[in-house]
Design goal:
Elements (H helix, E strand, L loop, with lengths): L1 H14 L7 E5 L1 H5 L4 E6 L5 E14 L2 E15 L8 E17 L2 E20 L3 E14 L2 E3 L2 E3 L4 E13 L1
Antiparallel strand pairs: 1-2, 1-10, 2-3, 3-4, 4-5, 5-6, 6-7, 7-10, 8-9
């Protein structure tokens, strides 16, 4: 778990200086609970069309399986309330690329995952600093799957619901 928190902190620190305007750096605590910590960096633009970049980490071991994965995503959020950017109701579109490696029964393999997501969300900013947001939508997943020694690791390709809770800071 220490690696997961170091990953989140490092990604946030690396991405934050890349843009000189306001930024929202957030994590999804639900992802952390399920062992997939992730961080998003949103660049707040006056137009309300904000670029969003993210990263996730996946580490899991059970029943002889050992897995490690990294994911990167990017997209935009369009805020729908005039005069408010970085808070309020928004529509978002994202693309993602993930890599997963697995070991089982002395063998190893890798998989690649692509995703496209459309979402609607709401973000509130308190004291001009603290951020909480809720987002939901649909994702399309395509992946190459993982099978080792005749045993498959459950990988999904198709359409699935998407949801995220964001807790973060506006800096």
């Amino acid at each position: 778990m220490k690696k997961a928190f170091l990953f989140i902190a490092l990604l946030g620190l690396l991405a934050a200086p890349a843009y000189s305007g306001s930024k929202i750096i957030s994590v999804n605590p639900v992802g952390i609970v399920f062992g997939v910590p992730n961080v998003n960096v949103e660049m707040v633009k006056p137009s309300g069309l904000n670029p969003v970049f993210g990263g996730s980490l996946y580490i899991y071991s059970s029943g002889g399986w050992s897995t490690f994965g990294l994911g990167l995503s990017g997209g935009v959020r369009k805020y729908l309330q005039a005069g408010k950017t970085g808070e309020g109701l928004y529509a978002g579109a994202y693309g993602g690329l993930g890599f997963l490696s697995a070991k089982y029964a002395g063998e190893s393999t890798t998989s690649v995952l692509f995703s496209l997501t459309g979402a609607i969300g709401y973000k509130a900013v308190f004291s001009d600093k603290y951020v909480i947001g809720l987002e939901g939508g649909l994702s399309i997943y395509l992946n190459s799957g993982i099978t080792i020694a005749g045993t498959s690791l459950g990988m999904y390709s198709g359409v699935a619901p998407y949801g995220a809770l964001e807790l973060g800071l506006k800096i």
